[in-house]
Amino acid sequence: DADVTQTPRNRITKTGKRIMLECSQTKGHDRMYWYRQDPGLGLRLIYYSFDVKDINKGEISDGYSVSRQAQAKFSLSLESAIPNQTALYFCATSAGGVWWETQYFGPGTRLLVL
Amino acid sequence: GIQVEQSPPDLILQEGANSTLRCNFSDSVNNLQWFHQNPWGQLINLFYIPSGTKQNGRLSATTVATERYSLLYISSSQTTDSGVYFCAVPQGGSEKLVFGKGTKLTVNP
Prior knowledge:
The complex is a heterodimer.
Chain A: E1 4-7, E2 10-13, E3 19-25, E4 31-37, E5 43-51, E6 54-57, E7 64-70, E8 73-78, E9 87-94, E10 104-105, E11 109-113
Parallel strand pairs in A: 2-11
Antiparallel strand pairs in A: 1-3, 3-8, 4-5, 4-9, 5-6, 7-8, 9-10, 9-11
Chain B: E1 4-7, E2 10-14, E3 19-25, E4 33-37, E5 43-48, E6 52-56, E7 59-64, E8 69-74, E9 83-90, E10 97-99, E11 103-108
Parallel strand pairs in B: 2-11
Antiparallel strand pairs in B: 1-3, 3-8, 4-5, 4-9, 6-7, 7-8, 9-10, 9-11
């Protein structure tokens, strides 16, 4: 079984709809991250969390919110989706203690906002 | 903030050929990761290599932190090596992992 899972894997939604992307991990890591990837670009950090009581904004947090329901679960919400949020979204985890340790990525969620 | 540049942006090889991908970064780093994104979008860790050299099968990586670059070597390339290779480094003093724009590798049979 995959260590980092994301649901759904693909989603089509309409402008103005609320949508939630979910991430679960079995690696036992404290730190979790949400990134988005746009065509031809690398990944950009949206939000990150060091533990269930710690949430931090990344580079491009506007229009997004997150919830860390448990050590193993980190959800990303688009409160009112817009077409330029169409992208590939990745969740990632890393072990606590040394924040620059290796990050492990989920399989990604392809989101299309019409 | 730190800048990450990868070269070449595109690379086309015949199966069996060797290749070298480069990642330059603009500031000192204490971490560097190489990733492979396959044609289906899956992102796979290849190496965590803040300095020195590591090898994993046909792939190896070298980071020269003092000169602010890292190299990824692919030997005897296979069609399954196709995809985009990213390097990423942390923004100094933050949790932000900064990615380069990637090298798109196509290996033809």
